[in-house]
Each structure stands twice: as structure tokens, then as C-alpha cells.
Amino acid sequence: MTSGWLTTALILFPIAGGLLVWLLPLRSFAVGSTALLFALIEVGLWIDSVARFNFSRPGLQLDQRTSWFSDLHVSYHVGFYGFSLWLAGLTVVVLAAAIGYAFWAGRERPRAYYGLMLILTGAIVGVFVAQDLLLFYVFWEAMLIPLYFLVGVWGGAGRLRATLMFVIYTMAGSLLMLASIIVLGLSQGTFDLVNSGTSGSDWIFLGFVAAFAVKAPLFPLHAWLPEAYRESSPEVAAVLSGVVSKAAAYGFLRIAISKFPEPVADFRTPILVLAACGLVYGSLLAFGAPDLRGVIAYSSLAQMGLIVLGLFAVNDLGLNGAVLQMVNHGLISATLFLLAGGIERRTSTGELALLGGMARGRPALATVLMTAGVIALAVPGSTAFAGEFAILAGVFQTGWGWAAVGAVAIVLAAMYMLRLISAVLHQAPGSAVSDAALDLRPAELGVLVPLVALLLVLSAWPAAITDHSFPKTSVQVTSSTGATGYAPLPNHRLALP
Amino acid sequence: MANVLVWAVWVVAAFACLGSGIAVVTFSNPFYSALSLIGNLASLAVLYLLLSAEFVAAAQVLVYAGAVMVMFLFVIGYLGERADAPWAGGPSWQTLGAVLASAALFVEVIVVIGLKTSGRLSDQRPVDSVFGRPYDIGRLFLTDHLLAFEITSIVLLVAAVGGVVLGSHARETP
Amino acid sequence: MIAAAWICLLAPLGAALAITLAGTRITRRGAGYLATASVAASFVAAVVAFALLLGDSPEERSHPSTLWSWLTAGQLDFGLRILVDPLSVFMMLVVAGVGSLIVAYSIGYMDGDDEERRYFAYMALFVFSMLLLVQGGNLLVLLVGWGLVGLSSYLLIGFWHDRPSAVAAAKKAFVMNAIGDATMALALFVVIQRSGSLDFETVFTHTGSLGGGWAVNLIALGLLGGAVAKSAQLPLQTWLPDAMEGPTPVSALIHAATMVTAGVYLIARTHPLFEAAPRVLELAAGLGAATLVVAGLIALVQTDIKRVIAYSTMSQIGYMFLAVGLGAYANGMFHLMTHAFFKALLFMAAGIVIHALAGEQDIRKMGGLRRLMPFTYIAFGVGALSLAGVPPFSGFFSKDSILAAALAHGWYGQILWVAGMIGAFLTGLYAFRLFFVVFWGEPSGFVREHLLKDSHGHAGEGPLSMTLTVGVLTVLAAIGGWLQFARVWTPVSDWLEPAARPLVEATGTQEAVSSVLAVALGLAGILVAWLVYSAGRVQAPRLAAVQALLEHKFYVDELYDRAFYRPAVLLAAGLGRFVEQPLVLGSVRGLVRSMRELGLGTGRVQTGLVRTYALSIAASVAVVTVVFLAVR
Amino acid sequence: MKGPDIVWYLALAGFLFCTGALGVLIRRSPLIVLLSLEIMLNGANLALIAFSRHYAQGDGQIFALTVMAIAASEVVVGLGLIVAIARKNLDLDVDKLSTLRG
Amino acid sequence: MIFALDTPHIDWLALSAPLALLGAGGVNLLAAVLVPRKARRVFGAIVCALGFAGAIVAAAILYAHSADGHGVIADSIQRDRLAALTAIIVAGSGILAIGTSYSEPMADDHIAEYYALLAWAGAGMIFLASASTLLTLFLGLEWFSISLYILCAIDRDLAGSLEAGLKYLIIGGFGSAMLLFGSALVYGATGTLEFHEIARVVQAQGLSDDALLVAGLALVIGGLGFKASAAPFHMWTPDVYEGAPTPVTAFMAAATKTVALVLTLRVLVTAFPQEARLWTVTVAAIACASLAIGNLAALVQKGLKRMLAYSSISHAGFMLIAVAANNGLGARALLYYLIPYSAMSVGAFAVVAARERELNRPVTLDNLAGFGWERPLLGISMMVFMLGFAGLPLTGGFVGKFYVFAAAYRHGWTWLVIVGVAATAVSLYYYLGVIRAMYMRPAEELQLAPVGGSPPRELVLQTTVAAALIVTVGSFFVVQPLIDVAKHAAGSLPF
Predict the structure, then answer these.
(1) Mutate which of B3, B68, B142 to test chain D, going by most D C-beta atoms within 10 A?
(2) Reduced to 3 states, what is the DSSP secondary structure of residue E391?
């Protein structure tokens, strides 16, 4: 395609920017503003790619392909599908917000910090556009390296243990994926995702699932999650839970589901069980968590469970809902983590017991937190509700029990999110809340309001994503039950042309 | 008759070889060990002769038993007698393991030979008169093994430099 | 007509957004005016829509309109769709009409609160949500409105967020409603699976093919769950009394006139689905009957003025459920309307009292307000009479037609009819207990302290915005019922006929019997109330156990606390302590530790002894040789 | 001049080799360890020469000769190291040379 | 007697690379006498570097002109692209090692000999890479081994240096004896020393299950495994790597491993193709053992050199997987992997050397704290080397591991892929631990340069590290050319 360079630019531009801010001997302010500028231009590039993307045409678009090493048929092959376009958009937006927040909050060693953030942007975008298994893996791992530093250097007191756990755990999962990639690629004769056919091997499938399940994380493989989310700086936690976890969900979608129709059918039930467990388990732990980050972290676990539930419904509703929910949860958890960061800055604690009463005299904080919070608990009408509804409606077609579990989770989500909102905003001021804790500053609003505004826009029009993610014919019903009315869907497969 | 003589010589040399070998390993005094090694080398030279390796036998005596061992004795003399008891020191499993491993290797060699005797090892090929003589060896060194010959000299040069580097300690030792 | 409907829907949303975004650039009073104006605009638009709809022939009074696709998935497409038909217009009129009065009333009531802007934004948001609920053209939009009213209810109950009780009540309300939302969502999933659409017309035409049996019952049960939660019927009733923590106009608007009656609207709206599952419909009627009795009983012992009214609301909604559950949709909707009038009136009058008494809500501290607040006294009196179903006030017309419909519904209906009759007596009793205790007798010390000092500098009955709106509602409560007199004059039923054709039609005799008996019982209740609470002729029977049972609202709160909330908390803590830490985190840490142990083990073999190293080579070579010789 | 079969030489070579290995494994004096290494090499040499005779082919002898030279080189370096160690007043005991471990 | 000797044709080009280094060594030996003491360091380094550079040029020319490999000089050595490529890698490592050595605080009096021995060790390795008979194999092995024994012990001021030297010598001698006895047995079985001949004889006479042959093969594998420092023949490695002067360690880690592995591949594939059923499994088992032991032991190391030593053991395991695969892809994988691996090894040890010189004591994980921020280039480079060792993308280590696993899979050994993957996961712990030590320790734990301020800017060392960095990262991006080269080199082997 003629516009393939744009995809490459989306990867390389932030990386180049990262190297630039890292190498140029700029002063702190200049570094931050340059990085932010790069991040915003990146958003512009993404908007340009949306403009050039033809949503009515199925298949890969804005693609570019160059051979990398030919004897094993590995190539640099990038391009967009509808859903990857949205996930890339989520990435650039959240990263821009994170950089903006960091710029406001101020970080030590800014050159390295912003350099890594920008490089991270490129790497994550790379994950979403890679159309070659090995390239995907390269970006997948490359994404982890900046994160390792971002958590490990700029994190909180327990960061060393947190990073160790996070990186080694997730990489152990990824390495199983590497084994699967090799086996799949060599047995297919090509590593290209678009050209290769499907595979019926359970083991290869499980290798991929291992990587994605750890990264997402899927219960009970989330051991890295609480500490990583607690010890990171807020903007990094935002990126981790908002974007990086989506890479895993994307992996489920792009590789696990679309390349392994038979194994998906075989393993659907166990995976759905884990996802449902994660949904309830995460919700309950979020309800019991003593601190802000804990609530958001475990709610992320729950949300990832929900998304996986939708993906493995493998039908129109489930898949579209999952993609929508990926974007939603990305924006929501980014907003919430940044807010948590702002609150922690003001009170130097995230303990819910020490907070409270922050609504009085802080209307902006109260409004933003309330808005983000009620969207997070998927109040009907919010985009998160749309996603959740579609996911559960989708998975309901697989079995009513899944949706019943999801319904329980709806109630639990209300419980933990309201607990969070109340503990921060309402009742008498907590012991850590003093008058010196000001309302959100304009700079913070500048970061948060666009995120919330996006959420509101999506709430008005969730179909912006669900209508523009998959070609209409991508979900194929391979066997019909012959029931009346609208065809229910026990055996679907996702075919990405 | 000649065969009996050869056998007799072989048996004597072999037992000398065995005995001196064991002696090298078991003498607690390095000096005696070194002397035993000379005996071992000499007895090996006899065996080489029996195997028609005349040049090698000569070199064994001249170079090995002569030059190299003299150097050894020199160093031993220089350092003084430092005896250490064999079988002593170190963890007990070390000694046990050592005996087991050595015995295992030996048994394996014997087994290998045993497996092989039914095969071809018993028929020796006839050799011509030059076999093993300096002429033959010299020819080989200048033709087929020219490179090996040259490399050997290089290794010796390296070793010589090493000896100088490691041995010259003018700067050190108060 | 469509445009009018959209204007009606979006005007309050615009006001809410404008107030939020304007921040401090708009005055507090300005926010109030803006909100009032927007709701009034909605009302006007609703009237216009009504007038235009009137012009259509009854069979063609159904006009859907889709703004855009809200949620899509492959072939499925759920639009942002409204439906203008008699039922929705009826509700639009009630909601926007009563709403505009209450919002206007708030201008006076909330005057001086330092977060007035937030209040009016929330109020406008609520009206928008409620209108979205009633105008929704498919089940999804209805569910969205359904959830949004829950949200705005949460926001408004917890408006005074520094009160822990208010925050707790708000959370409780939201969570209980979330349960209803969840069951509704489940019902919708079945609908999607069976019909591939959520648009009312499509779904209803598919009702036949929904397949009998579990599917249709599940749908109806799910919807009923939502209705029960939203309308505070048994068994999800516990949130409503607590919701009285919110400002009184909120109680009037949300927890009396509009939101809590949404369940009734829902059943009327989706009646084809319920009719396909008649057992569920009967269950709804039964729940309504049970609620109306239980709530009436509890109301007898409450001491908080607003809580008494709240229980009466539950009780009255019980009547409505009874009606729609028996298929008398128009009767239910009619009672919904009159109830909106007199219940809003009662709340607002109570609000004037509370306002005058500096926020005090305990009736035991009140008394003798009759002379001090004559206007309020009259208004409250009209409301109470209407509530008790005394002719010619509005409640009489609507309630009695419900009872008549019950009588017409066979043996099941007749059982419920008995419950309704008991309820009528209870209604008279608790309504006038409240009335006599608060207004009659001599002013208590507390009352004197507040009113005689005239600390507000006002006549004690609030500013014009309050009195005027209460006045309007008094009139409506008095004469609103004249819109329909069953079997003689039935414009409401006729209007609603195309949208919800009734299943029962009471005969004239049934109407008459019900009316006479109900009025008699209501008057009896009033008489008993007078005897006990005003004249003091009769001592209320002291049955400690019953008293405690009623004061603790049948221990339902405690039951739910023990059965659901505490287990959830314990489960959360237990999972954290016994699963998360030892299993999920511990397993990984244990793995790392064992790896390190193994590493240390290899270090121990690495003795530093060169002989060991040689031994390892010799032994390995020996092993390899053996293996080679063995397998060669 | 028909002497013993080649297998006898080989057995002897094997024995020498293993004796030398045993020496390396059990002795602590670096000098004797070096001597034991010589014995191992000599065992190998004997095998080479025996095979050389067996095949009536000079390669084995050539190999043996170069091994001799190599052995000499190793001895030179080894003795140099031992002398250097002795000069640093370290124990001449390979078991005591175990500061590097773990 | 007629002395009509049929002397073999000498292919000087095939020998040119070792000769260049021999010459450089010789010049340095002269310099030890002729050049003034103060100039010896510079002179020695330059001459030695020129020698290695010459070797690279020579090897490159050899590569270009040896499309079809054949034996030269009476078939003593093989002139082929495999040897040429190995020579280039070894000589490259040599140049980097010189850069690392340049400011090593070593006594001046043996500096010229040091460079001479370095050059000779390199020459020996390059020669060894082309060995095609058991005799030249043994000679080449001893040639560079003896050079290395001396190099290990050359810095007598260094604690442990002599110990390392002696240990290396004893174990080296022991290992050589094993190899030698094994060679003797193979010779006994086949009557020839030449690799191709061995294979031919085995094939022609049906000796593939001959007891002598397989016993000899076992001993040969032991000897080669020892040189490659593969478990269970590995135990000398940590001690020697730790005790030897760091630049020597760097050279050993890179070059010795390269040549030992290439030679293992060459011997096993060329001389023992009939025995593949035996040695593939054995090598795989050795690889697994190396991976397990190397990684587990490295987990608990505090000293950086020792940790890297164990890491090199585990890498021997990785690369032996490629050998065990016994296919063209495996050979390609091995040869490709060696390129970034050598660069990373030398680079990592060079960084260790730099830190050692700053602190004047052995580098541990603890005293590495803050190093990354203090010395940006070295820190970043070390980080990249560690990531490369761990096989993470953007380093050649990733592609290398990928190829190795691919080769194992193509051989049908998915289990070996899983073992390798598991080992990689374990290894992350300590590789990332180094990065953690350099960058993430809290400020109060920072150990800044000792009194006297920052050490002199070691331009040569930094250039060396930068070069290693470029190779490490570059080999990730330009995979195709390197793989082509590796493919052609592997084409010399009979697959």
C-alpha cells in the first residue's frame, strides 16, 4: 500500500524521538516538553492513519513488508486491521498522557526517563502492527525492556522486587511463546501472520496462551501484578495496566484465536473458567484492597478476565465487545492511575483509611474522579457498559453461566468502585488530607480531561469502535445448531483476511 | 625362540612400566616419583623398540627421560622436598571417586580391547626395514606432517617464552 | 414530534453539561434557573409531542427515531433510538411536569447550600436519564436510562457527602440497583440470543418465537428483577428508606414521583414479554401486594417524617405493581401519575417543614404546626387525603380502579384484592398518624424554638419558589384524579390502549364495591389514627415483639448484611490472606527460592579443589564411554 | 620378531593412562600431578605407537613424537608456575589453592 | 638413499592468518628486548592489533577464495570458509581483547610478552579452526592452551592469577590427555588421523559400532567439551575466569569458546557422521547439563566475573544445542550466534575491567551500584550485553537463540527447545540482576569512584566497548548478510 510508511513511522518516530531526547544534552524542562511534543505528534500521526484507513475494506491496510532474513522466511511486515488501529490509538493517547503527567510531576534523570517512555511507545505500537510472528515477539520483548527500567528506576520503595517479579514472570511466559513461534513458523514454512494458515496443535496454542495469560494477566498467573502496579510511578502503572495488558489481549485475538481454531474450541472452557474466576476474584480482592492502587490493580485483573471472556466467546458480540472494552479499560485505568498518582502526591499515601473528604473544595478532582469512577464501574450508558454488555451478551451465547458470573461481577464492580470513590471523596477528611492538598492543577486537568473526554465521546458512540474493528464477515460460523431465529453460535472461528 | 625372547623382554618392560607407573603415583616424595618416572619412560622406550619405533624410543630416552626429567629434578631440588601422602586430604568422596573413575576407565579400555580382539587387532601388518627409523620419521615430518612439525616448534617456542615469563622474578621476592 | 421528543430529552442533558463545565462562572442561582428552564423546556416539548401525537389515529401513534448506531457487533445493531408513543409521552409529561415543579422548588429549598451548582447539575442529569428511560426505543437504551437514573439517584442521595450515613445510603441504593441492572442485562442477553434485536417492535413481534419455557420466563424474571430493584419492591426494598438521606426535593422527584415508579413503566412497556410468561406477571402482582402490606405496616412505627412517606411510596408502588401485574396497565399508569402528584406534594410539604425546622426530620419533636404553617398544613392535608384515597382527591380514582381490576382477575386477584384492602386501611392510618402528630396538638418546645424566633426572617414557609410549586401540586393532587373515573370517563385508559392493551376490565359492580370498601377502610384508618394520635382516646397496643419487628423493618437489612455483604467482605479478606498471598504470590516466590537453593547446591560442588574438577571430567567421560559401548 | 599381540600393549597403555589419571585425582602436590599427567600422555603414546605398528604406518609415531614435545612444553610452563607459586610463598598443595571457588 | 622428498605444496594463503599473528608475536618478543620499557605497552598493543587486523584481512580474503573447501598442506588443515569465518571471529575478539588490555594495570616488565602470547594464542585458535586431522587438532589445541595458561598467570600481582593458571594447566593437561587417548583409540580403530578419512573408513568398513571407535569418540567429546567449558567438564571455568586477568578472561570467553565449538562441530560432523545417533544425544545431554548448571550456579553469584563465567557455561549449552541439531540450520545458528556472543563476552568483561580499575578490587553486584548512571556508555553497553546474553530482542543474542531453537526443532527435538527456553527464563534473573545493580539501587548505595576522583578516560576501552555494542546490536538488524556468511561457512561441512 502506498501509505505503509505511516505504520513504520508510527513505530520509528517515537523511538527516534526517544533516542533524541536521551542523547541531546537538554535541560529538564526542555526534555519534558520535547518528549511531550513527540508524543503529541505521534498522536497526530495516528489520526492521520485513521484518516487514511478504509474501514469498509476488509484485510490488512497501511501495510509494509521487507524481508528480514529469508532462509526462515522472516520479514519486517507491519500493517493495520481495524482493531489494531484502535489499540495503537489507545497506546499513543495513553502514552502521551503519561508523558504529560510525568512532565508535570517531574522525574529525576529526565532524559533517560522520557527517552524510555518514547521508546516504549514505539515498541507497543509495534506489537499492535506486527504481522510477522518473530517481529511480534521482538516488539513484545522490546516493550518489556523500557518497562523494566521505568518501574525499576523510577518506582517506589519496593520496586526492585516488583520489577524482578514482573519482568521475569512475564518473560518466562513470553519464552514459551518463543518456542511456540518457532514451532509454528517452521512448521508453516513462514513466520508471516497474514500468509500462514491455521494450526491445530494444542501445544503451540498453549505456548502462546501462556505468554498472553501471564501478561494480561489471567488468574491465577497474576502474581506480578499487585506489586508492579503499586510500586510503579503512577504514569507507568497507567501504561502497564492501560496499554501493556492490552498487548496480551491483542495477542489472544490476533494469534491465539485467529490461528488456532481447533485448539480454541478445545480449550475454550478452561480458559473461560480462568477468565471468569479472574473476574470474580479480582473484583473481590479489589473490594478488599486497602489502598487506591490495590483497588485499581485488582480491578484491572477483573477487567482482563472480562476481556478474555469476550474474546473466547469468539462471536461478533464477544469480539467487538472485547476490543471496545480493551480501549475502554485502557483509558479508564490510565485515568484512574494518574488520578491515584495525583492523590498520592497530595497526601503522600494511597491508604484508603487515611483518605476521605477530598470532594469538598476540590470540584475538579471530584468531578474527574467521579466521572472516571462511574465509567469504570460500567454504569449503563458508559462506554465501559457497552463493552461489558457486548462481551457478556457474546459469552452468553456460549453458555448462560458465564454471563451469570459476569452479572455478579457487575454488582461487585459497583461495590469496589463506589468504595474507592467514597473513601477518597466523601465523608470527613481523612487524617492524611490537609487543606494544603489542592484541587487538580490545570496541567493535571490538561492530561486527565482529554482522557475523560475520550471516554465520554466513546460513551456517546461506542459503535465508533465496534463498527470499525472487524470486517463484517470475519467471524465465520462453522457449524450451526439450527435453532430458530437469530443463529446462535457455538463454533465460530475468526478469520482475518 | 626370538619370540620367547621378545615376550620375555616385553614382560620385564611391561612390569617395570607398571611398577614405575604406580610408584610415580604413590611415592609421597616428588623426588622419588620423578625418578620412578624416568624408569617408566625407559621401560616404555623398550616397549617402543619392540613395536619397531626405534626413533621414538631413542627420542624418549634422550629428550624425555633425559632433558625433561632433568628439568623436573632440578625444580624439585630447587623447591626442596615437600612430601605429601597419597590418598590423604580432601573430601573422602574425592578419593573414592578417583579410584572408581580410574578403575572404570581401565575396565572400559579392557572391555574395548576385549570386544576388539575377535576383530582385527591380532594381525599385525608386516613392516619394511625403514619403518620407525629416523629416515622414515624424517620423511614423514617433511612431507605428510610438515605442518605438525612446524607447529610443534612453535608450541615449544611458546612454552619457552612462558618459562621465561613465569620463571623470571627478579622484581619479586624480597 | 420527533424533534420535540429529542428536545425534551436533550434539554436537561445540555443544562447538566453546561452547569458542570461552567464551574464557578455561573452563579448558584443561575444554575438553578438554568436547570429549571431546561426541565420546563422538556415539559413544553413533551406537551408539543403529546399534542402532535393526538393528531394521529390511535393505531399510528408509534414513532421511533434513531440518532445513530450506539453499539454494533457484526450483524447486530443497537441504535440510540427513541420511541414516541402514548406510553412514553404519558411518562414524559409526568416526568417533565412534576420534574420542573420540583426543580423549581429546589431553588428555594437548596438556597444557601454551598454546592448548589452540583445539585442542579445532578438534577438535570436525573431528568435527562429518566426521560431517556421512558423514551428509549429499544431495551438497551431503556437499560441505559435505567442505569443512569440509578447513577443520578446515587449522586443525589449522597449529595451531602460529608455525612457518612448519606454516603452509605447512596452506595446501598446503587448496589441494589446494580443487582437489578444485572438481572435486566441477563434478560437482554436472552432476548438478543433469541431475536437478534432489542428494538421493542422487533422483540415483541418475536415474542411468539421466543419459545415458551425457560427462555421467556427467564427474560420476564430478569426484567422483573430490574423493576423490583428500581421500584423498591420486595425483596429489594431496603435501599429506599435509607435514600431519604438525600435532600427532600430529591426524595420528591426521584424516590416518589418518577424513578421508583420506573418498574411499573417497565412492566407496562414490555408487557408482551411478561404476558408470554404469565406466572412471572402474577409474581409481580404478588410482590406488589406483599410490599404494599409490609411497607404499610412498617410505616406505622417510623418516626422520621421522610421515612414514613418513603414507606408509603413503597406501599403505593405495590398497588401499581399489583395493577400492572394483573394486566391493568392503564390503571397502574394512572395511579403512577396521581401518585406522582400527591407524593411529590407530601414530600415537598414535608420539605417545607424540615426546611423550617433546620433540617429536623423526627416527628416526635414536631407538633402543632397547623397554626404556624397554615399553607403547608393545607397542602399536606390534601396530599394525605389523596394518599388515603378519600374522594374527591386524586388517589381515590386511581387506587380504587386498581382494586376493582384485582377483583376482576379471578381467585388470585381476589386474594390480592384483600391485601389491597388491608393496605387501604393501613394507608389511612399511617398517613394521618403522621398528619396528626406533626400538625395537630400544641407546638412542641422544639418547634417553638425554631419557628417563633423566625430565624429565617421569612414567614417560615419558605420562599415563593417553594410555596408556589407546592401550591400547584396541591391543586394537581386534589383534582388530578378527575382525568379518569372508571367506566364513566376513561381518557387515560383510551390513550394508553394502543401501547398497552389491558388484560382485565372491571365491571361496574366491582368498581363500586371496591370504591366503597376502600373509602370506608381508608376513613377507618383515619379514624383510628385520630383516636390514637390526636385525641389520645385509645392507647396504641404495645406489642414489643411486633414493634421491634416493624421498627427493624422485618430485619431484612440485617438479613442481607449477614447473608451477602459480610460474606463478601470476609471472602475478599479470606481470598487475600489464604489464596493471593500463599498460593498466587507464594508459589512464584517459592519457585525463585528453590532455584536459588539449587544454585547454591551447585556452588557447594564447586569446591575450588582442582582434583574435583578433574574427577568430574574423568567420571563423565567414563559414563559417556559406558553409554556409548552399551548402546553403540 | 613376533612379540605379544597389540592388545597387550593396549592394555598396558590403558593401565598407564588410568594410573596417571588416578595420580591426578588423588595427589595434592602439583609436581606429582604434573608427573601423573606425563604418565597419562605416555599411556596414550604407547597406544599410538602400538597402533602405528599395527597399521605399519608412521602417523602414530609422528603423533607420539609431537606429544613428547607438547608434554615437554606443558612441563616447562607447569614448572614455571610451580616455581612462581613457591616464590610467592604459597603452599605447594593444590588443595590449598582453592581461594577461587563457589 | 635418495632424498627425493615429495614435499607438500604450501598454501600460504590458508596459513596467512596465523602467520600474521605469529609475526606480530615475534615482533613483540623482539620488542621485549629492543623497545624501551615505557613504549612497550603502546607498541605491543599496536603490533598485536595489527597482527589481528592482518589476520582478519587474510581470513576475509581466504573466505572470498575458498568457496569449496579442501584439504591443504598434505591434508593437514582444511582451507574452507568455516575456518575463515572462525578466524574472523577469533581475530575480532582478539582486537577487542587488546582494547580491553590496553590500560590494564599490569606490570610493565612482561607487557610485550603478554601481547606476544595473546597474538600466539589467537594464531593457535585460528590454526585450530582449520585443523583437519587429529594431530593438528591436538597441536592447535595445545598451542593456544599453553599460551593461555601463561596468560592466565601472567599478572602475578593479581590474587588468584597463579592459582588460576595452575588449575587451568592441570585440568587442561588432563583434558588434553583425554582427547589424546581418544584420538589414539580412533586412530586404532581406523588407521588414519584425517577427519574425512576417518569418516570414509568407518563408512567403507562398517565400523560405525566399533568399540574402539565409540570409546575414542567418547574421550574426544570429553576433551572438546572441556575446551568449550560445557558441563560436566566445566568446573575449571569459573575459577579460571575469575582468577585470570580480566582481559585474558575476555579473550578466553569469546575466542576459546568460538574455536572449541566450531571444532566440536567440525570434528563430529566431518569425522563421525556415522556416529551421529550417539553424539547428537550426548551433545544434547551435555547442553542440557550446561544450561542447568551454568544458569543455576550463576543465580547465586555475587562476583561479576564468576557470574559471567557461569553464564558462559550456559551459553556453551545453548550453542551445543545447535551442534546437537546436526543439520545445516544448526551450523548456521552456531556460526551466527558466535558473532554477537563473542562481542558480548568481550564487551561485558571489558566493562568489568573498567569497573575493576575504578575500584581496584573485584567487581561484585554490590559495588556495581550506580555504575550505569556514572558511566553512561559503559552502563548502556553492559545493559545491552546482558540483554543480549539473555536473548532479548534488539541484540544479536535474540536472533542467535532463535536460530538455535529453530535448529533443534528442525532436528525434531522440541523438548530441547523447551529446555533452552526454561534455561533462558532462569538466566533472566541474574542478567537482569546486573542491570538492576547498575541502575536501580537507591542513591545511598551508590559506590562512586574511589578517592582521587574519576579515573582517566579510557578512550581505548570505551571504543572497544562501543565496538562490541555495535556488533551486538548491529547483528540484530543485519541478520541476512551474517546469515548468508554463516550459511556459506556451514556449507563447508558435509550435511
Answers:
(1) B68
(2) coil
Residue C263 host element (H or E): helix C262-269
Grid cell at residue E17: 592468518
Question: Whole-number mean pLDDT of chain E?
Answer: 89
Phi-psi category of residue C68: left, alpha or beta, with phi > 0 → left and psi -120 to 50 → alpha = beta
Q: Alpha helix (H) ranges present in A289-399?
A: 292-311, 316-347, 363-376, 383-398
> Could you tell me which chain C residue has the CA closest to the CA of E222?
C621
Q: pLDDT tens digits, residue range E391-444?
A: 988 899 999 999 999 999 999 999 999 999 999 988 988 999 999 888 887 666
Q: Assess D2–B contact: CB distance below 8 Å, yes or no.
A: yes
Q: CA A238, CA A216: separation in Å to the nearest integer? A: 14
Model confidence at E452, pLDDT cuts 50, 70, 90, reads very low
CB of B102 within 8 Å of a chain C CB? The answer is yes
Q: Is the peptide bond before C235 cis (omega within 30 degrees of 0)?
A: yes
Neighbours of B81 (CB within 10 A): 11
pLDDT at position A490, please?
45
CB-based contact C204:C260 (threshold 8 Å): no
Using DSSP's 3-state secondary structure scheme, residue C76 falls into strand
Chain C positions in Cβ-Cβ contact with residue D94 (cut-off 8 Å): 609-611
Determine contact: C538 vs chain D, CB below 8 A: no
pLDDT value of residue B169: 60
Rounded to the nearest angstrom, the minimum Cα separation between D66 and chain E is 8
CB contact under 8 A, B151 and E149: no
pLDDT for the residue E241 = 93
pLDDT of residue E23 exceeding 90: yes
Show residues of chain A in contact with C204, CB under 8 Å. none
DSSP state of C485: B
- Residue E129 has what pLDDT? 92
Nearest CA in chain D to B167: D80
pLDDT over 50 (residue C390): yes
A neighbours by CB contacts (3+ pairs under 8 Å): C, E
E145 to chain B, closest Cα gap in Å? 10
ipTM of the assembly?
Answer: 0.90
Residue of D nearest to C609 (CA): D95
Distance from CA of A494 to the nearest CA of C (A): 12
pTM of the full structure: 0.92
Q: What percent of chain E has pLDDT over 90?
A: 66
The per-residue pLDDT for B120 is: 63
Is the Cβ–Cβ distance between A156 and A37 less than 8 Å? no
How would you write chain B as a 3-class SS string?
CHHHHHHHHHHHHHHHHHHHHHHHHHCCCHHHHHHHHHHHHHHHHHHHHHCCCHHHHHHHHHHHHHHHHHHHHHHHHHHCCCCCCCCCCCCHHHHHHHHHHHHHHHHHHHHHHHHHHCCCCCCCCCCCCCCCCHHHHHHHHHCCCHHHHHHHHHHHHHHHHHHHHHHCCCCCCC
B148 and D CB contact within 8 Å: yes
Q: How far apart are CA B116 and CA B122, in angstroms?
A: 9
Residues of C in contact with B104 (CB under 8 A): 619, 622, 626
User: pLDDT (tens digit, 9 = 90+) per residue, C571-626?
Assistant: 888 888 888 888 888 888 888 888 888 888 888 888 888 888 899 999 999 999 99
Alpha-carbon distance values, A398 to A268, A360, A492, B64, C144 (Å) = 10, 47, 10, 85, 24
As given in the structure block, the three cell numbers for residue C386 are 389523596
D85 in B contact zone (CB under 8 Å): no
Comparing alpha-carbon positions, the chain B residue that sits nearest to D15 is B106
Crossing angle of helices C374-388 and C464-479, in 10° steps, is 30
Write the pLDDT tens digit of every residue in C256-285.
888 888 888 888 888 888 888 888 888 888
Task: List the single best residue of C584, C587, C591 to mutate versus A (max A Cβ within 10 A).
Answer: C584
Q: Is the pLDDT of residue E282 over 90?
A: yes
